[in-house]
Design a protein that fits this description.
single chain; alpha+beta; 5-stranded antiparallel beta sheet; binds adenosine monophosphate
């Protein structure tokens, strides 16, 4: 899927509405449209990178920043004390359906393992 057809790029560009939780110049955090936990936030880098498999060393700082933002949001959303999960689905078998790299921040309930 090209950047032009990317639903998350359209959300980032405000061409498609979303419930924005947090935004800065590098990252957008939105509510997932189909939540699977009481707190289900998607963290999207504003730069279009299709998947973790497509990331390069140029993105080390950006991906580290997103993880720290996830931790900050988890604290803001009051899910940090009990614990939470930060997930990246990569590729078809990883369960990725939108090919713009993103992390799921999930919390507000106890989770199981393994996740399949
Ligand atoms: P993944 O399966 O890891 O690629 O995750 C894609 C996620 O995007 C799913 O959890 C969807 O529910 C979510 N999603 C798809 N379209 C939208 C949208 N327009 N607004 C918010 N979340 C969306
Ligand atoms: Zn995109």
């Amino acid at each position: 899927m090209s950047k032009e057809d990317c639903i998350f790029c359209k959300i980032i560009n405000k061409e498609i509405p979303s419930k924005i939780i947090y935004e800065d110049d590098r990252v957008l955090a939105i509510e997932d449209i189909n939540p699977v936990a009481p707190v289900h936030i998607l963290l999207l880098p504003k730069e279009h990178i299709a998947s973790l498999d497509d990331a390069s060393e140029n993105s080390i700082e950006l991906l580290g920043y997103i993880q720290l933002m996830a931790a900050r949001l988890a604290r803001d959303m009051k899910i940090a004390d009990h614990g939470y999960r930060l997930v990246n689905n990569c590729g078809e078998w990883g369960g990725q359906t939108v090919f713009h790299i993103h992390y799921h921040l999930l919390g507000g309930k106890e989770m199981g393992w393994p996740p399949f």
